Structures are given as structure tokens and as C-alpha cells.
Amino acid sequence: MSGFKIFAKAIDLVVNNRKAAMQIVLVPCLIALGVSFLMFGSLASQVVGTYQYSPFLFVGTLIIFVIWLWIAVAWHRFILLSEYPTGWVPAIKLDRIGSYFGHGLLLGLAMLVVIIPAMLVIFTAASGDGGALGVAVFLVLYALATVLFYRLSPILPAAAIGKRLSLKQAWAATKGHVGTFVGLFIALSIFGAVIGLILTLLGSVPLIGPLVQILFQVFSILLGVSVLSTIYGHFIDGRPLD
């Protein structure tokens, strides 16, 4: 049940801190939307039927990625350090953003070292079959990758708040809690399916559909960061989930 408690705690962190969430995400999201519109305009300006490289597409994507890191770091620091936003522009801590990005790369490399050999073994064993078995293999790999990610994920909040935490320390702190992360995976999968259904039903509704989609995307970002903050708080700081 601990996995579902982590999920519930993350939901609670977002819902009960709506004002702080708005202060942290509003301006960065407006900037990201502006950059997105400029990117689409750049694409639309290209000659139909020909390929024309646009440097702004790369730069725009990079800007949006950095904005996501900006939001993530600010929200981690709010949750774990009670660093309340003082206005409508969250503090830009470039050192923490850079550290968050670097630790994210480290985490990704660590996952590849485990996932790629496992993927080769499983797909080799299932090479003569397809259909339902192929789907099952994908789900097993996806669940494995997710559990592995959450076990090592405390290094990300640690980077955001300026604490030194190695992959080995994160792995040791989450030892014996695979069931917890499987439960968290299930809870998030159910949540994602429900949200996907809602967005599908409202997607064709003028104005309301796009607005709801944007709101859910922002909520999902904060929820994901809250999950990582909750994992760090519980397994590293010893904070209760209740």
C-alpha cells in the first residue's frame, strides 16, 4: 500500500498548495507557450514539400526543456525546503538546474546499463512469438524501467536542493521496497489512463478541450515532481507518508 500512499501524498502536495503551484508554473508556462507558438510559426513558414533547417526549432526545444527543469527545481525546493515563492517569477537557480540536468543524465545512463541487457535477453527469448507475448514483454520492460527509475530517483531532488547523494546511496535507501514502487507504477498507470480518457472525450470541444489539456499537462508535471519529492522525503529524510 505504500506505493498508493506515495501517489496520494503527491496528489495532496499539488492540490493543497495551489497558490504556490500557480506562482511557480504560471510565468514559466507562459514563456514556454510563447516559445511553442514561435516554433510552430517557424515550421509554418517553411516551403511546403521541401526541407529547410530552422535553428530556432532546436533552440526553442532547448528553451522549453530548461523551463521544465526550472519548474522542477523550484517545486522540489518548495516541497522539501519550504522555499516559498515570493512573487510570480520563481527563483532561477542555474547551479541547481545544471546539477539536476547532470544527475538526470547520470540516472539515464545507469538505467540503460540494466535495461538494455534485460531487453536483449527477453526479446531473444520471445523472438519466435508475437502478439500478446510482445505486449507482455513491453509491459514487463516498462514496469522494470519505472521501478528502477524510482529506486534511483532520489538523486534528482537531492540535486535540486543541493544535497550530495550518490546512485549507490539512493539504491541502498530504497532497498527492499520493490513492491512499493510496483504499487506506485500501477497507481500512476491508472491515473494516466483516466486522464487520457478525459482528454479524449474533451479533445474536440472548442476552447474547453485545449484549456483542459494544458491544465492537465501542468498538473502532471507537478505531480511527477511531487512523486520524486515524496520518495526523497520518505526514504532519505524519513518523513511519514500519512
UniProtKB/TrEMBL annotation:
The keyword Ubl conjugation does not apply. The chain crosses the membrane at residues 21-44, 56-79, 100-126, 132-160, 181-202, 214-236. Keywords: Membrane, Transmembrane, Transmembrane helix. The keyword Heme does not apply. This is Glycerophosphoryl diester phosphodiesterase membrane domain-containing protein. It comes from Litorivita pollutaquae.
